């Protein structure tokens, strides 16, 4: 009796990090859908880049369009590896559809996914509020900023333009990958689509709170 009681508290923490079949399926769906958006964003990128050319480096604001998959996947699945998995799946799908950056898309996806993962790991995978989403998005933004300013056409820009790009990419990671992903995750949870996940159960609990107060 004493032995079973002593190990039981550890069970929830273990199961909390264990991937279920539904986690893999939903993460794959998120990654696939995001991959299509990545591909479309890539098609729109030349025109958008030209529109922002009035300030060299400002195109870094577009970076978040390729960063949100990891943050969104992490917010919904809430398991170690979810941010990396969804970002990599998105990169693979984008690459398969014919992105102009070919295999580099996967390289960028892995690095961006790992960076987004770090943002959640800092909170020990226990905080899924806006601050965690923003932190994850910021790290993803830093990752793509480092890659682009050193290993892409952005590296040929002046130091000032590269700095503008770096800052713009981080801001984009915070706003698009961080804040927007958090808003999307909450909106999906509110519809009941995530009821099999902690995010969905939290949404149901928030909805029940006013009723509980009125009943009291």
Low-pLDDT residue intervals, each spanning 5 or more residues: 1-12, 212-216
Beta-strand proportion: under 5%
Number of domains: 1
Count of alpha and pi helical runs = 9
Secondary-structure element order, as H and E? HHHHHHHHH
Set down the secondary structure blueprint.
Elements: H1 2-7, H2 10-17, H3 21-51, H4 68-77, H5 82-97, H6 104-121, H7 130-151, H8 159-191, H9 198-215
Helix pairs in contact: 3-4, 3-5, 4-5, 4-6, 4-8, 5-6, 6-7, 7-8, 8-9
Folded structure, characterized:
This protein is mainly alpha-helical and 216 residues long. The protein has one domain (2-215). 75% of the residues lie in helices and 0% in strands. The chain is built from nine helices and no strands. Helix 4 (68-77) crosses helix 5 (82-97) and helix 6 (104-121) runs antiparallel to helix 7 (130-151). The longest helix is centred in the last third of the chain and has 33 residues, at 159-191. The relative contact order is 0.13.
């Amino acid at each position: 009796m004493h032995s079973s009681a002593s190990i039981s508290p550890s069970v929830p923490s273990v199961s909390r990090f264990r991937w279920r079949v539904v986690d893999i399926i939903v993460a794959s769906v998120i990654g696939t859908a995001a991959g299509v958006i990545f591909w479309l964003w890539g098609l729109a990128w030349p025109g958008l880049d030209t529109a922002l050319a009035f300030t060299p480096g400002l195109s870094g604001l577009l970076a978040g369009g390729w960063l949100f998959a990891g943050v969104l996947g992490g917010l919904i699945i809430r398991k170690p590896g979810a941010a990396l998995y969804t970002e990599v799946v998105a990169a693979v799908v984008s690459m398969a559809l014919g992105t102009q950056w070919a295999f580099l898309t996967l390289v960028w996806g892995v690095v961006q996914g790992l960076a987004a993962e770090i943002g959640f790991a800092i909170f020990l995978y226990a905080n899924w509020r806006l601050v965690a989403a923003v932190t994850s998005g910021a790290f993803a933004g830093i990752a793509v900023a480092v890659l682009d300013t050193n290993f892409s056409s952005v590296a040929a820009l002046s130091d000032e333009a590269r700095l503008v790009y770096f800052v713009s990419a981080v801001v984009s990671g915070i706003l698009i990958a961080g804040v927007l992903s958090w808003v999307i995750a909450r909106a999906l949870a509110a519809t009941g689509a995530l009821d099999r996940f902690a995010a969905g159960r939290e949404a149901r609990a928030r909805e029940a709170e006013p009723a509980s107060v009125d009943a009291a």
